[in-house]
Amino acid sequence: MEFAAIVAGFFTGLIVGMTGVGGGAIMTPILILLLGIAPSTAVGTDLLFATVTKLVAVKVHGSRGTIDWQVVRRMAVGSIPAACLTLLLMYQLSASREAGKVIMPALGIALMVTAVAMIFRTTLHGVGKRWRVGTPEAFKRAQPGLTVLAGVALGIMVTMTSIGAGALGTVMLVYLYPLRLTPAKLVGTDLAHAIPVALVAGLGHLALGNVDFGLLGWLLLGSLPGVWIGSHLSAKAPDKIVRNAIAVILLIVGARILA
Q1: Pairwise CA distance, residues 51 & 197, whole Å
Q2: Per-residue pLDDT tens digits for 1-14
Q3: Which DSSP symbol is given to 22?
Q4: What count of other Cβ atoms lies within 10 Å of the Cβ of residue 126?
Q5: Which domain holds residue 125?
Q6: pTM
Q7: Taking a C-beta distance cutoff of 8 angstroms, is the pair 195, 24 a contact?
Q8: Count: domains in the chain
Q9: pLDDT tens digit sequence for 153-206
Q10: In degrees to the nearest 10, what's the CA dihedral of 232, 234, 238, 241?
């Protein structure tokens, strides 16, 4: 168990550092399907794991100036309150022992949605770019509100499944900021937003008793060097190949969970 957790942590950290995506989408299914961790514990533990892991990546991106803090604030305005409200729902589900029945279907759906969004990321970027260039004034007026709404969707999904802050968040930003965010800033900005929402959701799950600190320690032991290496390889990583490979894996795992 300990060795498997270290390997899983390193692999997940490497992918997060290189692409900014795949943390919860990879780690949570591994914990549930391969390591046999209860769904609620897997989600809670992964949220705190993601918080610490992404702090390392954000430190690297921050030193390079590849974080757009205005965009981070806009998303957080929606995601943090949404995460808090979702935690109240999770509390009610935990009290009635219905959490597991809700988390697994939500996890499967989240994986499928994330995979489809990743596959059509280029298409969505093209749509956003045409809107931005074709009707710039209307786009700029709608941009802040749509960013907040994107944050709300992420806050709900991340709190329930620990999935979405990286992969789906990146796709949303590609659509909403097609010219403003360079590839490097896209990764850095998405990672920076993922930290507060994952921390709030993770602390909420901690209060619900859904965190295994022993498991968390082993995961971090593997992930911290992995994310450091991945962050320094991000400029050289074959981004499209890595993302498409992740998307295919997520589709398969999501379909298995929903089957």
Answers
A1: 9
A2: 788 889 888 888 78
A3: -
A4: 14
A5: 2-258
A6: 0.83
A7: no
A8: 1
A9: 999 989 988 887 777 888 889 889 988 888 778 888 888 898 899 899 999 999
A10: 120
